[in-house]
Predict the structure of Alkaline phosphatase.
Amino acid sequence: MRQAFWVLVLACVFVTVDLQRPQQLKDYWMDLGQRKLREKLNTKPNTNVAKNVIIFIGDGLGVSTVTAARIHKGQLQGKTGEEGSLFFENFPYVGLSKTYNTDRMVSDSAGTATAILCGVKTKFGLIGVDDRTSFGNCTSEEGASVDSILKWANAEGKSTGIITTTRITHATPASGFAHSASRYWEADADLPADARGTCTDIAKQMIEGDGSFIKVILGGGRRQFYHRNESDPEYPNVKGKRTDRNLINQWLQAKADMNMRAEYVWNSTGFNSVEPADVDFLMGLFEPSHMQYEGERNHDMEPSLAEMTEKAIKILKKNAKGFVLLVEGGRIDHGHHASLARHAVTDTIAMEAAVKKAAELTSANDTLTVVTADHSHVFNIGGYAGRGIPILGVNDAESDKNGVPYTVLSYGNGPGYTAPREDPTTVNTSSWNYVYQSAVLTASETHGGEEVPVYAQGPMSHLFDFVYEQSYIAHVMAYAACVGPNKDHCKMAPPTPTTSGGSSLEFSVTKALVVTKMAVAVMVAVIL
Ligand SMILES: *[C@@H]1O[C@H](CO)[C@@H](O)[C@H](O)[C@H]1NC(C)=O
Ligand SMILES: *[C@@H]1O[C@H](CO)[C@@H](O)[C@H](O)[C@H]1NC(C)=O
Ligand SMILES: *[C@@H]1O[C@H](CO)[C@@H](O)[C@H](O)[C@H]1NC(C)=O
Ligand SMILES: *[C@@H]1O[C@H](CO)[C@@H](O)[C@H](O)[C@H]1NC(C)=O
Ligand SMILES: *[C@@H]1O[C@H](CO)[C@@H](O)[C@H](O)[C@H]1NC(C)=O
Ligand SMILES: [Zn+2]
């Protein structure tokens, strides 16, 4: 009876979808192909100086997640879905980044975010230190520290910001300002006894270390910042994690001592009342741990990723020298680990909205925007599903060898394994808490080891259009913005941004190369 009901529901869905499917004959594809070709032939590399750099990291945003999010978004708008595109898929340049860690084929967010932000690959679980460090060994941090693009930018007078939907001390954001032999040393209580006093927890590094200059800090994880004897303002039963002191008060005091205007907020009301013109520093920590999935977000208590991005850019933009902003869609990864695919794709669409908002508030003439992932997931779209079939639903083309239907989306491993396999037509697979099936039972679905996409627009974005080590990304951002290892790039020519294709900057680099080559040729001739 129940099964018959679901068959009926699915049948209705298929019929509706088939009626919507537009017929696309040869003219459609020929026109589309020719139009895209002309567009591409007219794309000239932008060799301007990047005043601003915005880097979006979708945690776990592999290609299959981008595809599923694009289809889901289109279907929410009543379309078949495959033909659409997420905003950042229209960026002019795309490349692939190799995500392995120095010690693992399949990586974690700590080692990969360190590669993206600091330009140096390292081990699984390490934050802002190179491969000489052993995981969890405090003394092995000695001499291993590497700096991030945020620190390079700050040294050149730019403003910096970090936004995430996870705890602000979590692996990806932490790689922007911390140095730690373990990603898990988020509060002082997390440090092993032998590391206390020698190594510093990640939260404290945000207040006293390389994070102290960051102007905008927005995310979750406020428990890491107050004492064990203090209650959370929103959840009185939740206590802080620290054994030393309240770091939020320390941060506010430190900024006041510098005659800087700093504000701390912990809910949407406080956040919405912040006037960008009136603050120099803003810290917003909206949950004791991670912020909610977009699909479960309480709008009165937590701003969206797009709202946080907008506020941050309005504050950072006040600096005439520009800014570097890191934005993490951090819970895409958590959706996948729990095999809650609807949350993973919904949080992807929320990050897309943030990218769109950032593009509205900046210009590609002077702002390099990079959208990428730290690593992928073992997440699949399969089964010869028909055009426009609900992406969260059941494959209409075939059942398994035993005649049991299966969903379009599935995981290589994860919590959704049962034997015998459940018939998904007996449940609502598009409900938020539906756990998609996997081939192997693991407590948590795992990351994937293949390359991830890098979408880029703005100055020097054409340098991203091939297959490279993930650590290369930081180097292009540094070159485009003339910071860190590439701060001399701008000194080769007046840093006057041009608005057309070729620039004097590129010309002078070429000229410098020619002169060097000629000098070498003369020297060789003299020696011979
Ligand atoms: C920790 O690292 C230091 C420095 O590399 C090394 O001398 C020491 O043996 C390591 N300790 C452990 C327990 O592995
Ligand atoms: C909690 O402990 C800290 C540090 O020992 C102390 O300064 C503070 O007054 C205490 N707060 C409360 C609410 O007991
Ligand atoms: C939001 O935070 C402010 C302090 O910034 C507090 O006064 C207010 O009560 C909070 N609102 C809610 C709904 O908890
Ligand atoms: C399945 O769950 C989704 C999400 O909760 C809901 O929107 C939809 O109406 C449900 N479908 C059916 C047939 O109950
Ligand atoms: C960006 O450059 C284009 C020409 O390449 C120009 O038409 C446009 O006005 C510029 N936009 C801004 C915001 O400077
Ligand atoms: Zn993960």
User: Anything to note?
Assistant: Confidence is low (pLDDT under 50) at residues 7-16, 500-518.
